[in-house]
Amino acid sequence: MLSCRDVTQQASDHIDLADEPLHRPSLQVRLHLLLCRHCRRFVRHLRATRTLAAQVQQERQRGDQGERILQQVIHPKAEE
């Protein structure tokens, strides 16, 4: 079975490829995430960080001041 270190190193690829319709994430990664709450939390936080970074980029491209995003960071919604 993969170690936590292995999973954290593969987490970004796991997230990227999870949205691909024909790709299934590694069985080893999925098994580890099923068993390890710390790695599940890490992957959840990585997803949230990537989503927030994408939102900031979109706001910058539109020329908005980013106040809405700042408020989301300060007062995050409860997640799963």
Low-confidence stretches: none
Task: Compute the average pLDDT.
Answer: 81
| Domain module count | 1
How many distinct beta strands?
0
How many helices? The count is 4
Class from helix and strand fractions: mainly alpha
Radius of gyration: 15 Å
Characterize the main sheet: none
Which geometry do the CA atoms define?
A: elongated
> What percentage of amino acids are in beta strands?
under 5%
End-to-end C-alpha gap: 26 Å
- What's the order of the H and E elements? HHHH
Helix content: over 70%
List the helices and strands and how they pair.
Blueprint: H1 4-18, H2 27-35, H3 37-62, H4 67-74
Helix pairs in contact: 1-3, 2-3
Give an account of the 3D structure.
It contains four helices and no strands. By secondary structure, the chain is mostly helical. It has one domain. Helix 2 crosses helix 3 (37-62). The longest helix has 26 residues, at 37-62. The chain is elongated and about 45 Å long.
Structural features:
4 helices, mainly alpha, 80 residues, 72% helix
Could you give a short description of this structure?
By secondary structure, the chain is mostly helical. Helices cover 72% and strands 0% of the residues.
